[in-house]
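quick one, 264 residues, struct below
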Amino acid sequence: MGDYKRAQSYLRRRDLIHRKPSCRYLAGHCLVKQSRYDEALAVLGERNPTYLIKSKDANKRKIQPITARQRTRRIRKWQTTSSVSTAVGSPSTRTVTPSQPACDTLATHYRLKDNPDILLARADMFFTQCRFRQALEVTNAVLAQDKYNFNIYSIHVACLYELKEKNQLFLISHELAESHPEEPRTWLAVATYYFLIDKIAEARRYFSKANMMDPHFAAAWIRFAHTFAAEGEHDQAISAYSTVARLFMGSHMPQFSWARSTTL
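---
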């Protein structure tokens, strides 16, 4: 349901419904999926819009998931290079990372400074450098434009946790639980709130729920393991981190998180 609301919100915000027939059809489809049939009929009118499925836009929609995956892989590669450079660089060069020229080129030359994927990469870079306040400013900017952009919520919630923003985390968790109970990141937010207020059992239960809804949700798996480390249950924590390392091979986070938890 959240994606239909998100699409409808975007169409209305950009005033696309009355400008393009394809957008009008999409708006009607979103309303039908929300069981708002009278509103859908008012948007679609009397004319049958099925001819739109033969348009060139149909081909564009087919290739969008492929390009999105390629874009995500490139962003992750920049982030990995950035984090390594930050870790081994001298204090005078740690604020300059290899990902910055690429992001700056995309932002200026290609006019993508407000692109959510570019902003996500920037927020992730700030978070990796422990610049949580700056990362939060970026995630807030993304959510101000599109509050249904669930890709940004993992970093957004993590920033709120690191900055101890308990009230904001509670409000976000409550709103998402009411409007998007089918979204795994909703329960990540709920679990993170409980983790912040030291209700470990409840946090573990909701992290587990997020994992069950999306078995490939790395952030939920990592934080599920954190709950055992927080209670000093080292054997179970090691087992949980080992599971994460096996599921997400190549990620440094399980080893890093375990090392960090043992030094706290």
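The longest helix spans residues 56-88.
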